[in-house]
Amino acid sequence: MYIHRELESVIKPFLKRKEILGIVGARQVGKTTFLKHIFSEIKKRKRAEFLTFEREKDLSLFESIEDFKEYYQEHEVIIIDEFHYAQEGGKKLKYLFDTTNIKFIISGSSSLELTFETGKYLVGRIFKFQLYPFSFREFLLARDKQLFNLLNSRVPDILSQKPPFERFPGEEINSRLREYFEEYIVFGGYPEVVLSRDKEEKIKVLESILENYLLRDIKALLNLKTKGELIRIAEFLSTQICSLLNYNELSNISHLKYREVIRHLEVLENTFIVSLLKPFYKNPRTELVKTPKIYFIDNGFRNYLLSDFRKIEKRNEAGQLVENFAFSSLKRRNLGKLNFWRTKSKAEVDFILQREGEIIPIEVKYSLSPSLGKSFYSFIEKFSPRCGYVLTQGFCEVRKVKNTEIYFLPVYYL
Length: 414
Prior knowledge:
- By secondary structure, the protein is of the alpha/beta class.
- The protein has helices at 7-11, 31-42, 56-63, 65-71, 89-99, 111-121, 136-143, 145-154, 171-187, 191-194, 199-221, 228-238, 247-254, 258-270, 299-306, 318-333, 374-383, and strands at 20-24, 48-52, 77-81, 103-108, 126-130, 274-277, 293-296, 337-342, 348-355, 358-364, 387-392, 397-401, 404-410.
- A six-stranded mixed sheet has the order 8-9-10-11-13-12, with helices on both faces. A five-stranded parallel sheet has the order 2-3-4-1-5, with helices on both faces. A two-stranded antiparallel ribbon has the order 6-7.
- 37% of the residues are buried.
């Protein structure tokens, strides 16, 4: 069963252009399924071919680039899955782009190959898109299509326009949404995990993804003899989500030198395990030094590292799990530049979204009766934003602070 992915509508306008499309993302997020769906639609109207470089005969033909070019010269579209297995793939793809009229769509499980190897040959010739694990709305589509349809029609996008409060669902629908949401932020959005039947199966699938795909790939990229230090770093980071990154502590925990710690973090970022969020600042003398905060792309992966799948009401770090969800949701939307705000006096706002000349503060308060903190007031006083958001457990309201409209909205509406 194919679950419609939000990325589909994003890349649709680019299918008509000559440029190569590069789809990147962690293993097991559904890239192959997504590409096969795209292929099934394209082949209805164009001569197209689906290849995977995990298949030896496909890869072997590509290694003889003139043979490949002549063999497929009548094709209009070629989709290549697992492109990172190709030797000098970027150089060869550049040659095909420059000498044929074929539209290429490629995928890879790490941005390292596509960005630093393939990408350096394809400047101006490739558009890169990231496929994430299921978003909460994609999760809903897989689990309860009626609920998905209702949410999508009533609350299409709370961040792009004034939220349609008059159309928001009632308490029973919100209760169902919260129940699904609280499952989602514990087990995450890897497709196989979402489609698994019970808790034990979900955990086993996460174990398989971690051991058989993610850690194996990362270990190879770092040229590690063992994965011990990598596990120590990942486990430590999983206890630090939504916090400022402490490089010295990370070095001590992993027994790695500073430069090695930086290298490990780069690989974890480029294989879509973690993401670093930098601070928003205008005056370096008054804002905190540029220490980033750490987030995981998927909560389920993070919780597996801690062996903790308790329900949210039994967890001390429930607020961090919800904030981590909010970060991942905002990042995948690519609405503009995303930062956090923190001053030397420790006033802090979770997220600052900069788009179209606007500065928009976003705070996560997973409560049914949230209040605005002093830090939020301080940000409004300092920057006078047009609007801001407080993401809640289900509370909805509009408040005005000076000239700033503050929208209190359920976080699962993101």
